[in-house]
Structure formats: structure tokens, C-alpha cells
Amino acid sequence: MTKYFLIVIISAFLCSCASKKDVFESGLYEYSQANCLYWYFENKGYDTSDIRSISGGMVEISGASIEKFQEISLFIKNYRPDIKTKNNIDVDLYRCFHLRDSEELKNIIEE
């Protein structure tokens, strides 16, 4: 009986650890998207104070290091994927919605 109890407890612990990693990585992808929008608005000359506040909040509540966020920000700033659009959509904006497809970003987040 004790063996089964331990198996259930260990399984539950492993599942909870896996879901925390998913939430952690999801938060970094959300930050990446917000940061991409920040750079887009910055380049267009729009007010970026709200996005800066949102990004700052993401950094504050995350368990990731500030260095991880800096690495993501620098990657996003220079990120230029080869994207083709149907209707001449602004590629600088369009790229913000395709970050999850980036292997380079995935490697940064999963380091």
C-alpha cells in the first residue's frame, strides 16, 4: 500500500513540476511578444510607456533572471525572420505573432 501511495505522490510531483515549466516558458514567450510590440511601437514613434509597464510587470513576477530577459530583448530587437505575407502586411508587426515558431528564441528560453 505504501508503494502505491509513493508512486501516486511522486507522479503528482513530477506532473506539477512539468506544468510549472510550461507556465514559466509560456511567460517568457508572452514577454517576448510584448517586447516585440514594444520595439515595433518604438520604431514607429508611438508612446511605449504602457507596454514598458506591462513588460516590467512580467519581469517582476517571473522567476527568470534579469539576464534571461535581457537576452530575449536583444534577440527580439534584432529578430528578422524570413516571412512572406499575403497582403503586404508590415513584417515588423507580423513577426511579433510568429515568435513561437522561432527555434532561436526557443533555445534562449529553454537554456
Short description:
The protein is an all-alpha fold. The chain contains 5 helices and no strands.
Helix coverage percent of residues? Answer: over 70%
Please report the total strand number as a whole number: 0
| Arithmetic mean of pLDDT | 78
* Distance from first to last alpha carbon: 40 Å
Shape: globular
Q: Hey, roughly how much beta strand do the residues contain? A: under 5%
Count, helices: 5
Detail the poorly predicted runs.
Answer: 2-20
Structural class, from helix and strand content? mainly alpha
Radius of gyration using CA atoms only: 18 Å
> Could you give the order of the helices and strands?
HHHHH
Largest sheet: none
Descriptive labels:
single chain, 111 residues, mainly alpha, 5 helices, 73% helix, disordered N terminus
What does this structure look like?
The termini are far apart. It is built from five helices and no strands. It has helices at residues 2-44, 49-61, 66-78, 91-94, 103-110. The protein is an all-alpha fold. It is globular, with a radius of gyration of 18 Å. Helix 1 runs antiparallel to helix 2 and helix 1 packs across helix 3.
